[in-house]
């Protein structure tokens, strides 16, 4: 399988002196980065009458959701759990189209399996009766507690996701207006503390608290508001994009092109041009300047302020503040294909090690690479045979690890760490694995920094603890530079596909009117 190349090439012959294509006098917006937040922002900008130039340093779209094509396999680099599909449907509708005409989202059942170190497991799905039965199978005395926990989670969904996910927190007054909802959620409690209040079995406490790890948070420190993820999944399902998550990125590219906007690949932004306190465009590596009326950064938020905006233009996001902030863990991700199919292995599985809290302390607090691990194992070919050659399976296995403050030399230790993961998988869920592998590569925290320009190699940007959420997170309209806007995992509301798509909706509420820039 070869890479699909539906991308629009940039033609310098159509560019004006400012380095962007000439089209009719519409106001011009630059979007830095083509992650899902940037792609969604570009669609929304185009629908509001902006002419968009998207600048992507890689050779294809997706950012953290980039697609690797290797030896006939399709490997999605990043997000693989697709929830809240209505947020994608909205983007297609803005262009007068239907998402299902371009990308099929197939509902998964179960959503995923959680396998514990003792060999027991929990199959997680969206059916309330089956979920109660799974709870009862592991711990009959916890069924009532599970129901009470889900009531708390539903309240967090309504207050946190429905009411605040797309609300831009620009002023301290915005934060004060959200305080009553935070009090109702008792948002100062950690999600693990809440699960422990209602559930006795330690395995069930893991099942209903691990979700923040999917967006870079430590269940022992992130706010219990993130229990909203479970009602979100129950209401809207967990899906797979047929052809891979990259099919969604390519579908959004098609929408952006259809709006008359431009995407440039291999274009690394070196600096956001700020004149008289206002963003006026960007300069690229190599010196090219591209002028614009506004700039929207989908690059890592800390990286944007630390490296793309000169210090003299930053009063809020100073280097000191960026350095003392708390960042998510990073990831070691091993991609491999096998020459046989593991038919009894589900699409999504969490393969947990013997430690939970102690391992998370090593990752988030001690910044220590432990010898044990808990893994997220992804087998997309269970649902979608197109991602692997006939009779083969495609996998990726993700291990949460400390970000680069741990000081790990990944060039020296990467192979050994991968081999340890292979040994663990072979002993548990993938027998005979190492003899079946036909293609293999991995990414490390160093790659998150060097390739994706993520500060400290943190895979999800700022850690989503309460004191780094909502108003305390980088705002969708920059506090420091007029005409600079922010979307993506490091900004409000946070990481994950629903989070970054919601950040683009919040962006819409703070954008200037295009009429103000009419030529």
What is the structure about, briefly put?
The chain is of the alpha/beta class and 519 residues long. 32% of the residues lie in helices and 18% in strands. It has a 7-stranded mixed β-sheet.
Report on the architecture of this protein:
The structure is a single chain. With 519 residues, the chain is of the alpha/beta class. The protein is 32% helix and 18% strand. β10 (269-275) and β11 (278-284) form a beta hairpin. The radius of gyration is 22 Å and the shape is globular.
Count of extended strands: 19
Number of helices: 16
Query: What's the quaternary structure here?
Result: single chain
**Protein structure class:** alpha/beta
Mean model confidence by pLDDT: 92
Largest beta sheet: strand ordering: 7-6-15-16-17-14-18
What composes the largest sheet?
7 strands, mixed
Write the layout of secondary structure elements.
Elements: E1 28-32, H1 36-47, E2 51-56, E3 67-70, E4 73-76, H2 86-94, E5 105-107, E6 112-115, E7 121-124, H3 128-138, H4 143-164, H5 172-185, H6 191-198, H7 202-207, H8 229-236, E8 239-241, H9 246-258, E9 262-265, E10 269-275, E11 278-284, E12 289-291, E13 294-297, H10 301-308, H11 319-324, E14 330-338, E15 348-351, H12 357-365, E16 375-378, E17 393-401, H13 410-428, H14 433-436, E18 437-443, H15 445-450, E19 484-486, H16 497-508
Descriptors for this entry?
single chain; 519 residues; alpha/beta; seven-stranded mixed beta sheet; 16 helices; 19 strands; disordered N terminus
């Amino acid at each position: 399988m070869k890479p699909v190349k539906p991308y629009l090439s940039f033609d310098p012959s159509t560019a004006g002196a400012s380095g962007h294509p000439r089209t009719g006098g519409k106001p011009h917006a630059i979007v830095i980065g083509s992650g899902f937040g940037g792609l969604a922002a570009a669609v929304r900008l185009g629908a509001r009458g902006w002419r968009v130039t998207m600048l992507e340093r890689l050779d294809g779209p997706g950012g953290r959701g980039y697609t690797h094509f290797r030896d006939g396999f399709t490997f999605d680099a990043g997000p693989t759990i697709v929830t809240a599909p209505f947020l994608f449907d909205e983007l297609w509708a803005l262009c007068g189209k239907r998402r299902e005409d371009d990308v099929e989202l197939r509902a998964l059942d179960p959503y995923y399996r959680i396998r514990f170190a003792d060999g027991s497991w929990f199959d997680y799905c969206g059916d309330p009766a089956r979920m109660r039965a799974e709870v009862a199978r592991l711990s009959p005395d916890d069924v009532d507690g599970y129901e009470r926990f889900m009531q708390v989670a539903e309240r967090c969904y309504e207050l946190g996701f429905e009411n605040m996910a797309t609300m831009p927190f620009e002023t301290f007054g915005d934060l004060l207006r959200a305080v009553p909802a935070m009090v109702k959620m008792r948002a100062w409690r950690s999600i693990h503390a809440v699960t422990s209040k209602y559930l006795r079995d330690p395995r069930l406490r893991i099942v209903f608290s691990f979700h923040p790890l999917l967006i870079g948070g430590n269940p022992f420190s992130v706010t219990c508001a993130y229990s909203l993820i479970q009602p979100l999944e129950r209401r809207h399902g967990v899906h797979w994009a047929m052809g891979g998550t990259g099919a969604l990125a390519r579908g959004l590219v098609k929408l952006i092109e259809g709006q008359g906007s431009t995407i440039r690949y291999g274009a690394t932004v070196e600096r956001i041009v700020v004149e008289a306190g206002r963003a006026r465009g960007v300069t690229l590596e190599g010196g090219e300047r591209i002028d614009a009326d506004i700039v929207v950064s989908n690059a890592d938020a800390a990286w944007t302020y630390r490296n793309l905006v000169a210090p003299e233009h930053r009063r809020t996001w100073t280097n000191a503040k960026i350095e003392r902030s708390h960042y998510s863990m990073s990831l070691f991700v091993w991609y491999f294909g096998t020459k046989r199919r593991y038919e009894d292995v589900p699409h999504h599985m969490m393969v947990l090690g013997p430690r939970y809290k102690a391992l998370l302390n090593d990752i988030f607090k001690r910044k220590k690479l432990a010898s044990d691990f808990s893994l997220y194992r992804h087998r997309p070919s269970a649902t979608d045979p197109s991602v692997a050659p006939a009779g083969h399976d495609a996998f990726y296995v993700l291990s949460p690890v400390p970000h680069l403050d741990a000081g790990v030399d990944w060039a020296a230790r990467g192979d050994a760490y991968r081999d340890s993961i292979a040994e663990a998988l072979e002993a548990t869920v993938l027998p005979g694995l190492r003899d079946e592998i036909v293609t293999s590569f991995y990414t490390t925290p160093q790659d998150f920094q060097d390739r994706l320009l993520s500060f400290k190699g943190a895979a999800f940007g700022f850690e989503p603890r309460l004191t780094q959420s909502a108003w305390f997170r980088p705002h969708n309209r920059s506090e420091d530079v007029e005409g600079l806007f922010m979307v993506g995992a490091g900004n409000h509301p946070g990481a994950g596909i629903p989070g970054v798509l919601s950040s683009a909706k919040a962006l819409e509420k703070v954008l200037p009117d295009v009429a103000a820039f009419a030529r």
